[in-house]
Design brief:
The protein has 179 residues and is an alpha+beta fold. Helix content is 35%, strand content 27%. The protein has one domain (13-173). The chain has two helices and seven strands; from the N terminus they run ααβββββββ. It is rod-shaped, with a radius of gyration of 31 Å.
């Protein structure tokens, strides 16, 4: 009779508990891996988006200056754009520094165009024409509007695992055109 009492009590056997625990552990590892991959992908996407936004801002700032000011072709180089004085006597310079930053200098002072968490490993300005054609001199005069091609690489200063680099290239024409 004692045997019948124990047989009527329902419960889980040790094997059933071990199988359930193993299934739960495998499911937890799979779900955890998916979550970690999704988190990594989200962080990498955010870093690329941040770099694109920073690149767009810097290119737009440079483009605004090129379109609105007269480029000093004699003093500009592959690492610096120098603009002639405007009507208020302000001279603007955009210069790539060896410290991997892009400096904007005007009469108000100097400021970095790139954010502190973004560095610029390389930047080149390609200016065409490379010198001014002055009417009435021995230098031939041609009707070429100044253009600047910008080739820039930018990198975020993040954990090396999440570091991303993008390359931006664009060509901008000056609106100021002297014949």
């Amino acid at each position: 009779m004692l045997y019948k009492k124990y047989k009527q009590i329902s419960g889980f056997t040790l094997i059933e508990i071990l199988v359930a625990t193993a299934i739960f552990a495998v499911a937890s590892v799979i779900i955890g891996g998916i979550f970690m991959n999704a988190t990594n992908l989200q962080r990498q996407s955010a870093n690329v988006q941040r770099l694109q936004n920073e690149g767009r801002y810097m290119i737009e700032k440079i483009a605004r200056e090129i379109r609105g000011r007269e480029l000093d072709l004699y003093n500009s180089s592959s690492t610096a754009l120098v603009f002639k004085k405007d009507e208020s006597g302000n001279v603007v310079t955009i210069q790539y520094r060896s410290s991997s930053s892009l400096a904007y200098t005007s009469q108000d002072g100097t400021a970095n165009l790139n954010a502190a968490d973004v560095r610029i490993p390389s930047l080149k300005f390609f200016i065409y024409p490379q010198y001014e054609y002055i009417p009435g001199t021995s230098t031939p005069t041609i009707n070429v509007q100044p253009r600047v091609t910008i080739l820039m690489k930018i990198v975020n200063n993040d954990i090396p695992k999440y570091q991303k680099q993008i390359t931006i290239q664009t060509t901008i024409s000056s609106k100021i055109y002297n014949r």
